[in-house]
Amino acid sequence: MNDEINSINMESRDERSLLALTTKNIGTLNWFIPDVDKMVRLSIIKNPLFNREIFEKINYKEYELTKALLKTNFLTKEERTNIEEDLGILKQKRKTTESFCPLPWNHLGIMTNGDVRMCCQMIYEPFGMLDVNVKNIKNIDDVRNLPAIKQVRKEMLEGKKPDLCKLCWTEEKSNLKSKRIHQNSIYTTLPALAKKYTKNDGEIDTTKIHLNYFDLRLGNKCNLACRSCGPTETDQWYKEIWNIGQQSFSFYNKKEYSLKENKGKIIIDSDDFSWPQTTSFLDQILYSCNKIDRLYFTGGEPTINLSHIQFLEKLVQEGLAEKIFLEYNSNGMAMPESLLNIWPNFSGIGIGFSIDGANEKFEYLRYPGKWKKFIRTLSKLDEYHMNFKKITASLAPTVSIYNFLHILDLYEFILFNTPTWFSKHMPIHVLEGPAYMSPKIFPDHSKEKIQIIYNKWLKNLESIEKIPKVNPKFYNQIKITAKHQISSLLTYINTPLPNRDKLLEEFHNKTKFMDKQRNQNWKEIFPELVDVLL
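RE: above sequence
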Protein backbone atom coordinates (compact mmCIF):
# COMPACT_ATOMS: atom_id res chain seq x y z
CA MET A 1 0.00 0.00 0.00
CA ASN A 2 1.17 3.51 -0.78
CA ASP A 3 0.84 6.66 1.31
CA GLU A 4 -2.40 7.62 -0.42
CA ILE A 5 -4.07 4.35 0.59
CA ASN A 6 -2.61 4.48 4.09
CA SER A 7 -4.14 7.93 4.60
CA ILE A 8 -7.73 6.65 4.64
CA ASN A 9 -9.79 4.44 6.94
CA MET A 10 -9.96 1.21 4.96
CA GLU A 11 -12.95 0.02 6.98
CA SER A 12 -14.98 2.93 5.64
CA ARG A 13 -16.66 2.19 2.33
CA ASP A 14 -17.22 5.93 1.78
CA GLU A 15 -13.52 6.71 2.11
CA ARG A 16 -12.50 3.84 -0.16
CA SER A 17 -15.07 4.91 -2.75
CA LEU A 18 -13.97 8.52 -2.62
CA LEU A 19 -10.29 7.65 -3.10
CA ALA A 20 -11.10 5.23 -5.94
CA LEU A 21 -13.04 8.01 -7.65
CA THR A 22 -10.51 10.81 -7.21
CA THR A 23 -7.05 9.21 -7.22
CA LYS A 24 -4.66 10.18 -10.00
CA ASN A 25 -2.39 7.23 -9.23
CA ILE A 26 -2.97 4.19 -11.46
CA GLY A 27 -1.38 1.95 -8.83
CA THR A 28 -3.91 3.07 -6.25
CA LEU A 29 -6.74 2.44 -8.68
CA ASN A 30 -5.48 -1.07 -9.43
CA TRP A 31 -5.22 -1.79 -5.71
CA PHE A 32 -8.99 -1.33 -5.34
CA ILE A 33 -9.95 -3.78 -8.12
CA PRO A 34 -10.64 -6.78 -5.80
CA ASP A 35 -12.88 -4.71 -3.49
CA VAL A 36 -16.12 -6.58 -2.81
CA ASP A 37 -18.17 -3.40 -2.39
CA LYS A 38 -19.89 -2.44 -5.63
CA MET A 39 -19.79 1.29 -4.78
CA VAL A 40 -15.98 1.15 -4.67
CA ARG A 41 -15.87 -0.68 -8.01
CA LEU A 42 -18.32 1.83 -9.48
CA SER A 43 -15.96 4.61 -8.41
CA ILE A 44 -13.11 2.81 -10.19
CA ILE A 45 -15.10 2.78 -13.44
CA LYS A 46 -15.97 6.47 -13.07
CA ASN A 47 -12.32 7.45 -12.49
CA PRO A 48 -10.77 9.04 -15.65
CA LEU A 49 -7.83 6.60 -15.31
CA PHE A 50 -10.09 3.58 -15.86
CA ASN A 51 -8.77 1.64 -18.86
CA ARG A 52 -8.98 -1.65 -20.72
CA GLU A 53 -6.45 -3.36 -18.46
CA ILE A 54 -8.58 -2.65 -15.39
CA PHE A 55 -11.77 -3.51 -17.29
CA GLU A 56 -10.45 -7.00 -17.94
CA LYS A 57 -9.78 -7.56 -14.23
CA ILE A 58 -12.79 -5.98 -12.52
CA ASN A 59 -16.04 -7.72 -11.57
CA TYR A 60 -18.70 -5.53 -13.16
CA LYS A 61 -21.71 -7.91 -13.21
CA GLU A 62 -24.04 -5.54 -11.40
CA TYR A 63 -26.56 -3.11 -12.85
CA GLU A 64 -24.95 0.20 -11.86
CA LEU A 65 -21.47 -0.96 -12.93
CA THR A 66 -22.65 -2.36 -16.25
CA LYS A 67 -24.52 0.86 -17.00
CA ALA A 68 -21.41 2.92 -16.21
CA LEU A 69 -19.26 0.73 -18.46
CA LEU A 70 -21.37 1.60 -21.49
CA LYS A 71 -20.25 5.22 -21.09
CA THR A 72 -16.59 4.30 -21.62
CA ASN A 73 -14.99 4.74 -25.05
CA PHE A 74 -12.65 1.73 -25.38
CA LEU A 75 -15.16 -1.13 -25.69
CA THR A 76 -15.26 -3.13 -28.90
CA LYS A 77 -18.58 -3.49 -30.73
CA GLU A 78 -18.86 -7.10 -29.55
CA GLU A 79 -18.08 -6.19 -25.94
CA ARG A 80 -20.65 -3.40 -26.02
CA THR A 81 -23.30 -5.77 -27.39
CA ASN A 82 -22.57 -8.35 -24.69
CA ILE A 83 -22.66 -5.74 -21.95
CA GLU A 84 -25.96 -4.37 -23.27
CA GLU A 85 -27.40 -7.91 -23.09
CA ASP A 86 -26.11 -8.23 -19.53
CA LEU A 87 -27.71 -4.89 -18.71
CA GLY A 88 -31.08 -6.09 -19.98
CA ILE A 89 -30.95 -9.17 -17.74
CA LEU A 90 -29.78 -7.15 -14.75
CA LYS A 91 -32.52 -4.59 -15.36
CA GLN A 92 -35.16 -7.30 -14.93
CA LYS A 93 -33.53 -8.41 -11.69
CA ARG A 94 -33.37 -4.80 -10.56
CA LYS A 95 -37.14 -4.60 -10.30
CA THR A 96 -36.87 -6.79 -7.22
CA THR A 97 -33.73 -4.98 -6.08
CA GLU A 98 -35.55 -1.63 -6.13
CA SER A 99 -38.17 -2.98 -3.74
CA PHE A 100 -35.88 -5.13 -1.61
CA CYS A 101 -34.68 -4.31 1.89
CA PRO A 102 -32.73 -6.74 4.11
CA LEU A 103 -34.44 -5.70 7.33
CA PRO A 104 -37.57 -7.90 7.15
CA TRP A 105 -35.20 -10.84 6.90
CA ASN A 106 -32.31 -10.15 9.29
CA HIS A 107 -33.53 -7.51 11.73
CA LEU A 108 -35.89 -6.84 14.62
CA GLY A 109 -36.62 -3.56 16.36
CA ILE A 110 -37.57 -3.33 20.02
CA MET A 111 -39.45 -0.20 21.00
CA THR A 112 -39.10 1.70 24.26
CA ASN A 113 -41.97 -0.24 25.87
CA GLY A 114 -40.77 -3.64 24.62
CA ASP A 115 -43.13 -3.93 21.65
CA VAL A 116 -41.55 -5.51 18.58
CA ARG A 117 -41.62 -3.85 15.18
CA MET A 118 -40.07 -4.51 11.79
CA CYS A 119 -38.35 -1.18 11.24
CA CYS A 120 -38.14 2.27 12.80
CA GLN A 121 -38.81 3.86 9.39
CA MET A 122 -42.35 2.49 9.41
CA ILE A 123 -43.81 5.69 10.80
CA TYR A 124 -47.32 5.34 9.42
CA GLU A 125 -50.02 3.14 10.94
CA PRO A 126 -49.76 0.30 11.79
CA PHE A 127 -46.09 1.37 12.29
CA GLY A 128 -44.64 -2.04 11.41
CA MET A 129 -45.86 -3.44 14.72
CA LEU A 130 -45.81 -7.22 15.08
CA ASP A 131 -48.36 -7.18 17.94
CA VAL A 132 -46.05 -8.91 20.37
CA ASN A 133 -44.09 -7.66 23.38
CA VAL A 134 -40.73 -9.00 24.56
CA LYS A 135 -42.25 -10.05 27.88
CA ASN A 136 -44.25 -12.69 25.99
CA ILE A 137 -41.41 -14.02 23.83
CA LYS A 138 -39.97 -17.40 24.77
CA ASN A 139 -38.13 -18.04 21.49
CA ILE A 140 -37.01 -15.16 19.25
CA ASP A 141 -37.42 -17.22 16.09
CA ASP A 142 -41.15 -17.51 16.81
CA VAL A 143 -41.45 -13.79 16.05
CA ARG A 144 -39.70 -13.90 12.70
CA ASN A 145 -42.52 -15.50 10.70
CA LEU A 146 -45.51 -13.59 12.01
CA PRO A 147 -48.09 -12.66 9.32
CA ALA A 148 -47.21 -8.95 8.99
CA ILE A 149 -43.52 -9.53 8.35
CA LYS A 150 -44.22 -12.43 5.97
CA GLN A 151 -46.48 -10.15 3.91
CA VAL A 152 -43.77 -7.47 3.58
CA ARG A 153 -41.24 -10.08 2.42
CA LYS A 154 -43.71 -11.50 -0.08
CA GLU A 155 -44.40 -8.09 -1.60
CA MET A 156 -40.71 -7.20 -1.82
CA LEU A 157 -39.79 -10.43 -3.61
CA GLU A 158 -42.65 -9.84 -6.04
CA GLY A 159 -41.11 -6.48 -6.93
CA LYS A 160 -43.77 -4.49 -5.08
CA LYS A 161 -43.11 -1.59 -2.73
CA PRO A 162 -44.93 -2.21 0.58
CA ASP A 163 -47.03 0.69 1.85
CA LEU A 164 -45.48 0.24 5.30
CA CYS A 165 -42.16 1.39 3.82
CA LYS A 166 -43.57 4.67 2.53
CA LEU A 167 -40.96 6.84 4.25
CA CYS A 168 -38.09 5.19 2.36
CA TRP A 169 -39.92 5.44 -0.97
CA THR A 170 -40.64 9.13 -0.30
CA GLU A 171 -37.01 9.87 0.59
CA GLU A 172 -35.72 8.01 -2.46
CA LYS A 173 -38.12 9.88 -4.72
CA SER A 174 -36.59 13.10 -3.38
CA ASN A 175 -33.07 11.70 -4.07
CA LEU A 176 -32.31 11.32 -0.37
CA LYS A 177 -30.39 8.25 0.82
CA SER A 178 -32.99 6.12 2.59
CA LYS A 179 -32.41 3.56 5.31
CA ARG A 180 -33.33 0.86 2.78
CA ILE A 181 -30.52 1.92 0.44
CA HIS A 182 -28.07 2.06 3.33
CA GLN A 183 -28.97 -1.42 4.57
CA ASN A 184 -28.67 -2.86 1.07
CA SER A 185 -25.16 -1.46 0.84
CA ILE A 186 -24.23 -3.31 4.05
CA TYR A 187 -25.98 -6.66 3.55
CA THR A 188 -25.14 -7.27 -0.09
CA THR A 189 -25.53 -11.08 0.04
CA LEU A 190 -29.01 -11.09 1.55
CA PRO A 191 -31.04 -10.79 -1.69
CA ALA A 192 -29.70 -14.12 -2.89
CA LEU A 193 -30.29 -15.75 0.50
CA ALA A 194 -33.79 -14.31 0.66
CA LYS A 195 -34.74 -15.74 -2.73
CA LYS A 196 -33.33 -19.15 -1.82
CA TYR A 197 -34.81 -19.57 1.65
CA THR A 198 -38.10 -17.65 1.48
CA LYS A 199 -41.33 -19.44 0.62
CA ASN A 200 -43.97 -17.94 -1.66
CA ASP A 201 -45.98 -16.70 1.34
CA GLY A 202 -42.97 -14.89 2.85
CA GLU A 203 -42.03 -17.50 5.47
CA ILE A 204 -38.28 -17.93 5.92
CA ASP A 205 -36.03 -20.73 7.08
CA THR A 206 -34.67 -19.17 10.27
CA THR A 207 -31.83 -21.71 10.40
CA LYS A 208 -30.50 -20.35 7.10
CA ILE A 209 -31.25 -16.63 7.42
CA HIS A 210 -29.99 -15.35 10.75
CA LEU A 211 -30.68 -12.24 12.77
CA ASN A 212 -27.74 -9.89 12.20
CA TYR A 213 -29.07 -6.58 13.38
CA PHE A 214 -31.15 -5.33 16.34
CA ASP A 215 -32.56 -1.87 16.98
CA LEU A 216 -32.69 -1.76 20.79
CA ARG A 217 -34.52 1.02 22.60
CA LEU A 218 -33.89 0.11 26.20
CA GLY A 219 -36.70 2.13 27.72
CA ASN A 220 -37.46 5.84 27.51
CA LYS A 221 -35.06 7.16 30.16
CA CYS A 222 -33.70 10.40 28.75
CA ASN A 223 -32.22 13.74 29.72
CA LEU A 224 -34.08 15.92 27.19
CA ALA A 225 -37.65 16.74 26.17
CA CYS A 226 -37.14 17.62 22.50
CA ARG A 227 -39.80 19.55 20.59
CA SER A 228 -40.39 16.78 18.04
CA CYS A 229 -40.45 14.03 20.67
CA GLY A 230 -42.97 12.89 23.29
CA PRO A 231 -43.52 10.67 26.34
CA THR A 232 -43.22 7.43 24.34
CA GLU A 233 -39.53 8.16 23.73
CA THR A 234 -38.53 10.25 26.75
CA ASP A 235 -39.68 10.25 30.34
CA GLN A 236 -38.83 13.97 30.50
CA TRP A 237 -42.12 14.65 28.72
CA TYR A 238 -44.17 13.20 31.62
CA LYS A 239 -44.09 16.42 33.59
CA GLU A 240 -44.72 18.50 30.45
CA ILE A 241 -48.01 16.78 29.61
CA TRP A 242 -49.04 16.46 33.27
CA ASN A 243 -48.75 20.24 33.68
CA ILE A 244 -51.27 20.79 30.91
CA GLY A 245 -53.77 18.41 32.48
CA GLN A 246 -52.97 15.30 30.46
CA GLN A 247 -52.74 12.28 32.78
CA SER A 248 -52.20 9.58 30.15
CA PHE A 249 -50.72 9.14 26.68
CA SER A 250 -51.15 6.84 23.72
CA PHE A 251 -48.38 4.57 22.51
CA TYR A 252 -48.69 4.59 18.70
CA ASN A 253 -52.48 4.27 19.00
CA LYS A 254 -51.97 0.73 20.31
CA LYS A 255 -51.82 1.15 24.09
CA GLU A 256 -52.74 3.76 26.64
CA TYR A 257 -50.41 4.53 29.57
CA SER A 258 -51.43 6.39 32.71
CA LEU A 259 -49.27 8.81 34.68
CA LYS A 260 -49.37 9.38 38.41
CA GLU A 261 -47.73 11.59 40.99
CA ASN A 262 -45.41 9.94 43.49
CA LYS A 263 -43.52 11.99 46.09
CA GLY A 264 -43.71 15.09 43.93
CA LYS A 265 -42.49 13.30 40.78
CA ILE A 266 -44.60 12.35 37.75
CA ILE A 267 -44.09 8.68 36.87
CA ILE A 268 -45.72 6.10 34.62
CA ASP A 269 -48.08 3.51 36.06
CA SER A 270 -46.50 0.58 34.19
CA ASP A 271 -43.25 -1.39 34.09
CA ASP A 272 -43.32 -1.84 30.28
CA PHE A 273 -40.63 0.81 29.81
CA SER A 274 -38.38 -1.11 32.20
CA TRP A 275 -38.40 -4.20 29.98
CA PRO A 276 -34.58 -4.60 30.00
CA GLN A 277 -34.75 -5.22 33.76
CA THR A 278 -38.09 -7.06 33.96
CA THR A 279 -37.78 -9.51 31.04
CA SER A 280 -35.23 -12.06 29.84
CA PHE A 281 -35.18 -10.79 26.27
CA LEU A 282 -31.64 -9.37 26.31
CA ASP A 283 -30.37 -12.70 27.62
CA GLN A 284 -32.20 -14.45 24.78
CA ILE A 285 -30.27 -12.27 22.33
CA LEU A 286 -27.02 -13.18 24.08
CA TYR A 287 -27.54 -16.92 23.96
CA SER A 288 -29.48 -17.49 20.75
CA CYS A 289 -28.34 -14.87 18.25
CA ASN A 290 -24.64 -15.55 17.70
CA LYS A 291 -24.66 -14.12 14.16
CA ILE A 292 -25.24 -10.53 15.28
CA ASP A 293 -22.90 -8.06 13.60
CA ARG A 294 -24.66 -4.75 14.36
CA LEU A 295 -26.58 -3.24 17.24
CA TYR A 296 -28.31 0.13 17.11
CA PHE A 297 -29.06 2.01 20.33
CA THR A 298 -31.21 5.09 20.57
CA GLY A 299 -33.65 6.78 22.89
CA GLY A 300 -34.39 7.41 25.38
CA GLU A 301 -30.74 8.38 25.59
CA PRO A 302 -28.44 5.32 25.52
CA THR A 303 -25.42 7.00 27.11
CA ILE A 304 -27.25 7.42 30.44
CA ASN A 305 -28.93 4.01 30.36
CA LEU A 306 -27.33 1.54 32.80
CA SER A 307 -28.99 -1.46 31.10
CA HIS A 308 -27.21 -0.54 27.89
CA ILE A 309 -23.76 -0.62 29.48
CA GLN A 310 -24.54 -3.84 31.37
CA PHE A 311 -25.63 -5.50 28.12
CA LEU A 312 -22.39 -4.46 26.40
CA GLU A 313 -20.42 -5.95 29.31
CA LYS A 314 -22.23 -9.27 28.87
CA LEU A 315 -21.47 -9.26 25.13
CA VAL A 316 -17.80 -8.87 26.00
CA GLN A 317 -17.96 -11.67 28.58
CA GLU A 318 -19.61 -14.03 26.07
CA GLY A 319 -16.91 -13.33 23.46
CA LEU A 320 -19.38 -11.80 21.01
CA ALA A 321 -18.24 -8.16 21.10
CA GLU A 322 -15.34 -8.28 18.63
CA LYS A 323 -17.70 -9.13 15.74
CA ILE A 324 -20.29 -6.45 16.51
CA PHE A 325 -20.40 -2.90 15.24
CA LEU A 326 -22.27 -0.52 17.55
CA GLU A 327 -24.42 2.27 16.13
CA TYR A 328 -25.86 5.11 18.18
CA ASN A 329 -28.24 7.97 17.93
CA SER A 330 -27.34 10.26 20.81
CA ASN A 331 -28.10 13.82 21.84
CA GLY A 332 -24.47 14.26 22.91
CA MET A 333 -25.23 15.58 26.39
CA ALA A 334 -23.30 12.79 28.14
CA MET A 335 -20.35 10.53 27.36
CA PRO A 336 -19.47 8.46 30.47
CA GLU A 337 -16.05 6.90 30.97
CA SER A 338 -17.66 3.49 31.59
CA LEU A 339 -18.92 3.52 28.01
CA LEU A 340 -15.68 4.77 26.49
CA ASN A 341 -13.76 2.06 28.36
CA ILE A 342 -15.86 -0.76 26.96
CA TRP A 343 -16.08 0.37 23.30
CA PRO A 344 -12.61 -0.88 22.24
CA ASN A 345 -13.87 -4.45 22.69
CA PHE A 346 -16.20 -4.01 19.69
CA SER A 347 -15.44 -4.02 15.97
CA GLY A 348 -16.25 -0.33 15.66
CA ILE A 349 -18.46 2.52 16.83
CA GLY A 350 -20.64 4.84 14.77
CA ILE A 351 -22.44 7.77 16.39
CA GLY A 352 -25.08 9.94 14.79
CA PHE A 353 -25.60 12.98 16.97
CA SER A 354 -29.21 14.19 16.88
CA ILE A 355 -28.19 17.82 16.64
CA ASP A 356 -30.87 19.91 14.92
CA GLY A 357 -29.22 23.28 15.38
CA ALA A 358 -26.33 25.10 16.98
CA ASN A 359 -26.21 27.34 20.04
CA GLU A 360 -29.63 28.75 21.02
CA LYS A 361 -31.39 26.89 18.20
CA PHE A 362 -30.15 23.56 19.59
CA GLU A 363 -31.29 24.56 23.06
CA TYR A 364 -34.75 25.44 21.75
CA LEU A 365 -35.31 22.25 19.75
CA ARG A 366 -33.50 19.87 22.13
CA TYR A 367 -34.81 21.41 25.35
CA PRO A 368 -33.37 21.63 28.00
CA GLY A 369 -30.06 20.64 26.39
CA LYS A 370 -27.03 22.93 26.44
CA TRP A 371 -24.91 23.49 23.36
CA LYS A 372 -21.75 23.78 25.43
CA LYS A 373 -22.29 20.23 26.70
CA PHE A 374 -22.27 18.90 23.14
CA ILE A 375 -19.06 20.83 22.42
CA ARG A 376 -17.51 19.24 25.52
CA THR A 377 -18.58 15.78 24.32
CA LEU A 378 -17.04 16.47 20.93
CA SER A 379 -13.79 17.55 22.55
CA LYS A 380 -13.79 14.46 24.76
CA LEU A 381 -14.27 12.16 21.77
CA ASP A 382 -11.51 13.96 19.88
CA GLU A 383 -9.07 13.06 22.66
CA TYR A 384 -10.49 9.52 22.79
CA HIS A 385 -10.00 9.10 19.05
CA MET A 386 -6.24 9.53 19.47
CA ASN A 387 -6.11 6.04 21.02
CA PHE A 388 -9.17 4.39 19.47
CA LYS A 389 -9.43 4.93 15.72
CA LYS A 390 -12.42 2.67 15.09
CA ILE A 391 -14.93 5.37 15.92
CA THR A 392 -16.83 7.54 13.46
CA ALA A 393 -19.31 10.28 14.15
CA SER A 394 -21.58 12.61 12.25
CA LEU A 395 -24.35 15.07 12.81
CA ALA A 396 -27.70 13.42 12.13
CA PRO A 397 -30.26 16.22 12.26
CA THR A 398 -34.00 15.88 11.97
CA VAL A 399 -35.10 18.51 9.48
CA SER A 400 -38.34 20.29 10.36
CA ILE A 401 -39.97 23.60 9.54
CA TYR A 402 -38.07 25.12 12.48
CA ASN A 403 -34.54 24.38 11.24
CA PHE A 404 -35.00 24.03 7.49
CA LEU A 405 -32.93 27.15 6.87
CA HIS A 406 -30.54 26.51 9.75
CA ILE A 407 -29.43 23.21 8.18
CA LEU A 408 -27.15 25.34 6.01
CA ASP A 409 -25.42 26.65 9.15
CA LEU A 410 -25.06 23.08 10.47
CA TYR A 411 -23.32 22.08 7.26
CA GLU A 412 -20.85 24.90 7.73
CA PHE A 413 -20.34 23.78 11.33
CA ILE A 414 -19.25 20.28 10.30
CA LEU A 415 -17.02 21.62 7.52
CA PHE A 416 -15.21 24.22 9.59
CA ASN A 417 -15.63 23.37 13.29
CA THR A 418 -15.35 19.61 13.74
CA PRO A 419 -12.28 17.39 14.21
CA THR A 420 -10.46 15.80 11.27
CA TRP A 421 -11.97 12.35 11.87
CA PHE A 422 -15.55 13.68 12.17
CA SER A 423 -17.65 13.02 9.07
CA LYS A 424 -17.97 15.94 6.69
CA HIS A 425 -21.11 14.36 5.29
CA MET A 426 -24.37 14.87 7.16
CA PRO A 427 -27.03 12.13 7.08
CA ILE A 428 -30.35 13.94 6.93
CA HIS A 429 -33.67 12.64 8.22
CA VAL A 430 -36.72 14.69 7.34
CA LEU A 431 -39.34 14.88 10.07
CA GLU A 432 -42.67 13.29 9.15
CA GLY A 433 -44.45 13.68 12.46
CA PRO A 434 -45.90 15.60 14.14
CA ALA A 435 -47.28 16.74 10.77
CA TYR A 436 -47.51 20.39 11.85
CA MET A 437 -43.69 20.48 12.12
CA SER A 438 -43.09 19.04 8.64
CA PRO A 439 -41.14 21.31 6.27
CA LYS A 440 -43.71 20.41 3.60
CA ILE A 441 -46.14 22.87 5.20
CA PHE A 442 -44.24 25.92 3.91
CA PRO A 443 -46.53 28.14 1.79
CA ASP A 444 -45.58 28.56 -1.87
CA HIS A 445 -44.28 32.09 -1.39
CA SER A 446 -42.01 30.80 1.41
CA LYS A 447 -40.65 28.04 -0.84
CA GLU A 448 -39.67 30.67 -3.40
CA LYS A 449 -37.71 32.59 -0.76
CA ILE A 450 -36.09 29.36 0.48
CA GLN A 451 -35.06 28.49 -3.08
CA ILE A 452 -33.20 31.79 -3.34
CA ILE A 453 -31.47 31.31 0.04
CA TYR A 454 -30.44 27.73 -0.76
CA ASN A 455 -29.16 28.62 -4.22
CA LYS A 456 -27.07 31.45 -2.78
CA TRP A 457 -25.57 29.04 -0.24
CA LEU A 458 -24.80 26.49 -2.96
CA LYS A 459 -23.06 29.17 -5.00
CA ASN A 460 -20.95 30.15 -1.98
CA LEU A 461 -20.14 26.48 -1.40
CA GLU A 462 -18.63 26.23 -4.87
CA SER A 463 -16.36 29.18 -4.14
CA ILE A 464 -14.86 27.62 -0.97
CA GLU A 465 -11.17 27.03 -1.62
CA LYS A 466 -10.11 25.58 1.71
CA ILE A 467 -11.76 23.36 4.31
CA PRO A 468 -9.69 23.20 7.52
CA LYS A 469 -8.40 19.76 8.57
CA VAL A 470 -9.57 18.16 5.30
CA ASN A 471 -7.30 16.75 2.59
CA PRO A 472 -7.77 18.95 -0.53
CA LYS A 473 -8.35 15.86 -2.70
CA PHE A 474 -11.67 15.35 -0.86
CA TYR A 475 -12.97 18.90 -1.38
CA ASN A 476 -14.79 18.13 -4.60
CA GLN A 477 -16.60 15.06 -3.30
CA ILE A 478 -17.64 16.86 -0.12
CA LYS A 479 -19.10 19.67 -2.21
CA ILE A 480 -20.90 17.23 -4.51
CA THR A 481 -22.47 15.42 -1.56
CA ALA A 482 -23.54 18.65 0.15
CA LYS A 483 -25.02 19.98 -3.09
CA HIS A 484 -26.95 16.75 -3.62
CA GLN A 485 -28.40 16.75 -0.10
CA ILE A 486 -29.39 20.41 -0.10
CA SER A 487 -30.95 20.10 -3.56
CA SER A 488 -32.84 17.01 -2.40
CA LEU A 489 -34.35 18.99 0.48
CA LEU A 490 -35.68 21.52 -2.01
CA THR A 491 -37.28 18.68 -3.94
CA TYR A 492 -38.75 17.29 -0.73
CA ILE A 493 -40.60 20.43 0.36
CA ASN A 494 -42.36 20.53 -3.00
CA THR A 495 -44.01 17.18 -2.27
CA PRO A 496 -47.78 17.74 -2.07
CA LEU A 497 -49.24 17.71 1.44
CA PRO A 498 -52.99 17.56 2.22
CA ASN A 499 -54.40 20.17 4.62
CA ARG A 500 -51.27 22.29 4.38
CA ASP A 501 -52.99 25.52 5.44
CA LYS A 502 -54.60 23.83 8.42
CA LEU A 503 -51.26 22.33 9.49
CA LEU A 504 -49.55 25.72 9.18
CA GLU A 505 -52.18 27.22 11.47
CA GLU A 506 -51.60 24.33 13.89
CA PHE A 507 -47.86 25.04 13.77
CA HIS A 508 -48.43 28.63 14.92
CA ASN A 509 -50.92 27.69 17.63
CA LYS A 510 -49.02 24.76 19.13
CA THR A 511 -45.65 26.49 18.92
CA LYS A 512 -47.06 29.50 20.75
CA PHE A 513 -48.54 27.21 23.40
CA MET A 514 -45.30 25.28 23.98
CA ASP A 515 -43.28 28.49 24.02
CA LYS A 516 -45.46 29.73 26.87
CA GLN A 517 -44.95 26.47 28.80
CA ARG A 518 -41.16 26.61 28.38
CA ASN A 519 -40.68 30.37 28.51
CA GLN A 520 -39.29 30.40 24.96
CA ASN A 521 -39.97 32.47 21.84
CA TRP A 522 -39.53 30.85 18.44
CA LYS A 523 -39.61 34.20 16.65
CA GLU A 524 -36.52 35.34 18.56
CA ILE A 525 -34.69 32.04 18.04
CA PHE A 526 -35.55 31.61 14.35
CA PRO A 527 -35.81 35.10 12.84
CA GLU A 528 -34.91 33.71 9.40
CA LEU A 529 -37.99 31.46 9.60
CA VAL A 530 -40.17 34.42 10.48
CA ASP A 531 -38.84 36.24 7.41
CA VAL A 532 -39.67 33.47 4.93
CA LEU A 533 -43.14 32.91 6.43
CA LEU A 534 -44.11 36.60 6.09
